[in-house]
Design goal:
Length: 572
């Protein structure tokens, strides 16, 4: 069985559902297929970081002590779907909200169940280096369900080569559940490699991961969510990539543990992590054409513009060289974008490794509370990421439903901006062009001449005042752009809907000032008008029928003197 993980499995905020967006197809960027090379993946080859070879190779350890389970007939064994007995249906429904999945059923399933080996066939025969680095596995959790937390830990203990597993760090982000205290301590004391770190205050997953990383002793940090099951042979392929180049950040394929019947479901091959505006994570399948032209095999690593966030291996020292996470990110969300942009723009690479597979319970809701409002928390995190990493592209982010964030206090960003300078990271334009050229990212919604239908003339800016004149594409004074944040601008000057004696006012652009915003094309009643957004009465830009004057007037659907058309429209 195979499913595609839809965007609905994960979206940054409830209002940002991308289910209805069309899945973008991958655009081939090179005319000729690149030479066959182990590192060829999506489209154009970036500067491939040096591949080093040290020790010898050996076959990946297909280690799984659970393959011959103690109780082959237990529910959910081998990753099969389990069923709730009729008598227990009520209880299983009642307990759903403890984790927003079938908590009752999860309890019936062995904590060390076997799962199907979903790797591409070549993986179990593949070679990895003998002297791989060790890893610390970090799980942070808040109020995680007992059975799933245990199953997560057991899957790591059972399916990781012991000499590579330095330790498992459980970071308790100030859980409120009693069973996560003494009972958890007692249970985990059987396993010398497992250590519990308790946070005194709720920090959110980002700072909780930082707390775990600070204690870690392994060469590589491997972060995992606390409701996962690692599959056979999951670890070595990840560590092997980091070993080849410490700037590679390796992610397993994330498979689905069904929230209703707890079955382990394989996902489609050739998926990579992408985002859509406003920074909403999603999956996209490589095109057949690209796969064919580049001879990409199912087991080849896939370059990823962004990672899902929860499951990845990164060289510990490299993680700190990159400045880890922005500690100003709260609770949940946005950190996957932050670390992805940071990795790519500052010299690293993100890959999905098909030979490494980990199941994850996708949940429709967060089973824990947010200390502050959920939506406000997530949007604040995203705005921090946009301000630090997106350069001029941040306007596209704000223009997709986040204009209200422009004048919100999102905390101090000095340290993050300094870090980006210190690391001499490339700009976002480079990222778009080289890592994610399929991203739809026009910098303006519309631009060019602003043609008035009534007078058949164009808007002109002349020595600080506005008028209109005979249209002439060669005159820079007639070039304007309509930005994502809805300003009407020429260079750094914006048209302000305030009337002065000389006409309309021009002001230095400032995205935080709502009075500089105009509505254009976004209103079905006045489609071609330029409407002063914050004026209490609807006022529109109008061209005088004589004398090349320009002024504001009550909007009138029928007036062609209020209709304006830009030369180019990039997006609606
Ligand atoms: O305040 C918190 N403190 C925590 O310790 C909130 C959460 N957590 C823990 C939590 O118990 C869990 O183990 O952090 C982990 C992740 O939280 P989830 O499982 O609620 O997140 P998610 O799976 O819905 O969301 C994904 O996006 C997040 C954005 O911040 C994180 O990056 C998650 O790690 C990430 N999960 C994955 O990438 C798994 C695959 C999902 C997809 C696609
Ligand atoms: Mn999760």
């Amino acid at each position: 069985r195979s499913v595609r993980i839809g965007d609905k499995m994960k979206s940054a905020g409830k209002d940002n559902k991308t289910d209805s967006l069309p899945v973008k197809t991958f655009v081939q960027v090179t005319a000729k297929p690149p030479r066959a090379h182990p590192d060829i993946r999506t489209g154009e080859l970036l500067n491939t970081t040096g591949v080093k070879k040290k020790g010898g190779l050996h076959k990946v350890m297909n280690l799984d002590v659970t393959l011959k389970p103690r109780d082959a007939r237990a529910p959910g064994q081998f990753g099969w779907a389990a069923e709730v007995p009729l008598d227990d249906l009520d209880e299983s429904r009642r307990r759903w909200t403890e984790g927003y999945f079938n908590v009752f059923l999860s309890e019936q399933i062995p904590v060390d169940r076997a799962v199907p080996d979903t790797r591409p066939p070549a993986c179990s025969e593949s070679l990895v280096h003998e002297d791989l680095p060790t890893t610390s596995v970090i799980f942070c959790f808040v109020d995680e369900v007992w059975s799933t937390l245990l199953r997560s830990v057991h899957s790591v203990l059972n399916r990781s080569p012991p000499h590579l597993l330095k330790e498992i760090l459980l970071v308790d982000d100030c859980s409120t559940k009693d069973y996560l205290k003494d009972k958890l301590d007692a249970y985990m004391s059987q396993f010398p490699k497992v250590r519990i770190i308790r946070l005194k205050e709720r920090q959110g997953l980002i700072r909780a991961r930082l707390a775990g990383a600070a204690e870690a002793k392994g060469d590589v940090l491997t972060f995992l969510d606390s409701h996962i099951e690692c599959n056979v042979g999951w670890l070595e392929p990840l560590l092997d990539r980091v070993y080849l180049d410490r700037r590679k950040v390796a992610c397993p394929v994330i498979e689905v543990i069904n929230d209703k019947d707890m079955s382990y479901v394989m996902v489609d091959n050739f998926q990579r992590g992408i985002f859509k505006w406003p920074l909403v994570f999603g999956w996209s399948t490589l095109s057949k054409d690209l796969i064919r032209k580049n001879h990409i095999k199912v087991s080849d690593p896939i370059r990823c513009p962004v990672m899902a966030g929860g499951l990845f291996s990164i060289d510990r020292k490299y993680f700190y060289e990159l400045g880890a996470y922005d500690p100003g990110l709260d609770v949940w969300g946005g950190e996957n974008m932050e670390i992805s942009f940071k990795i790519w723009m500052c010299g690293g690479e993100i890959e999905i490794i098909p030979c490494s597979r980990v199941g994850h319970i996708f949940r429709a809701e967060n089973p824990y509370g947010f200390p502050k409002d959920r939506q406000k928390t997530v949007e604040r995190n995203l705005a921090r990421v946009a301000e630090v990493w997106l350069d001029e592209y941040k306007e596209i982010f704000y223009g997709h439903g986040y204009l209200h964030l422009l004048d919100r206090n999102i905390g101090n960003l000095t340290a993050q901006i300094q870090l980006r300078k210190k690391l001499q990271c490339k700009n976002f334009k480079w990222y778009v062009e080289n890592v994610f050229p399929e991203l739809d990212a026009p910098l303006a919604k519309a631009e060019g001449l602003v043609f008035n239908i009534g007078t058949r003339k164009c808007l002109v800016q002349d020595k600080g005042s506005l008028s209109f004149g005979v249209c002439d594409l060669s005159k820079q004074s007639q070039h304007f752009s309509y930005s994502w944040v809805r300003t009407l601008r020429q260079n750094t000057t914006c048209l302000s809907p305030q009337v002065t004696e000389r006409g309309l006012a021009l002001e230095p652009c400032d995205n935080t000032k709502p009075h500089l915003r105009w509505l254009h094309k976004s209103n079905k009643f006045l489609p071609e008008h330029l409407i002063a957004d914050t004026h209490p009465q609807r006022t529109c830009l109008e061209a005088g029928s004589e004398g090349n004057t320009i002024y504001l007037k009550a909007c009138d659907v029928s007036s062609s003197y209020q209709k304006w058309h830009f030369t180019h429209y990039y997006a609606q």
